Amino acid sequence: EAKRRGRNCAVPYAAALDRGASERLQLVSQLREALRAGQFVLSYQMQYDRNGAVVGAEALLRWNHPERGLLAPGHFIGVCEDSGLIVPVGRWVLREAARAHARLKEAGFGWFRIALNVSATQFQQGIADDVAAVVREFDLPPGAIEIELTESVVMANPEAAVESMQRMREDGICIAIDDFGTGYSSLAYLRRLPLHRLKIDRAFVRDLGSGGDDETICIAIINLAQSLGLKATAEGVETEAQWRWLQDWGCDEMQGFLFGRPVPLEALLDDLRARHPR
Ligand code: C2E
Ligand code: MG
Ligand code: MG
Ligand code: MG
């Protein structure tokens, strides 16, 4: 097409760009509507300690699209972030996770921890205030909620990050660094951050058990966590070999398709009841 038009190839190119922009705008308004209409849901992926005991779950956002069905964050989270919609969406996630914890507590699982993901914009727009309000409203016990932040969110403005992390910690919130090892953390700051956990990125877990370079990285992260007094969690555990390797090297907690996929709250509750019959 571009070749046929010769010099005019700039025209279809510009048209394509416009279409991209208008599609994005349309997606933004669909997402705004999704929030209003209650089309967002949380899926929960269980997390286990080294002995295989359940300790909690990570809440993962899904969009129950009227035509396309359940969509993973890869389809829409970027647009939420670029448009600022991530702030109200993130607030919804926080309240929904707190509501889920209240349900679990009611069912006798008050010890269960729910982890949730927080984007840069949401973190910078005063997350500590939102967290404090939710902790009060739902009377959340210490350790009920864990916030997952990426290295870039924290390192963008470490001083400000320390302050809001400190406030959340005082409210009984645990804080994890997600996808650890893929960003640029200052070790000097890492030592000063009020953290509880480093989550080893899936990319480093993939080849565990086969003697590759990634094993060295995982060992380093596990040791770093240990020497800073933090827990290490491996994400994306898919095979028995990876699991055994992580157990042998002292990784504290694990999460991945080997143990289970993300599921709705009702299925999570059924699973917990089956594990802990009364
Ligand atoms: P993440 O926080 O690193 O979450 C882990 C992702 O890995 C999830 O994808 C999960 O379904 C997937 N996963 C878990 N176990 C395995 C495994 O064994 N193998 C493989 N291949 N994948 C596994 P998901 O749900 O598509 O979420 C993708 C990302 O979207 C998350 O990465 C997180 O960064 C973001 N996200 C999810 N929910 C939220 C949210 O509520 N708010 C924000 N701001 N971001 C979110
Ligand atoms: Mg996460
Ligand atoms: Mg992760
Ligand atoms: Mg990730």
TrEMBL record:
<feature type="domain" description="EAL">
    <location>
        <begin position="24"/>
        <end position="276"/>
    </location>
</feature>
<protein>
    <submittedName>
        <fullName>EAL domain-containing protein</fullName>
    </submittedName>
</protein>
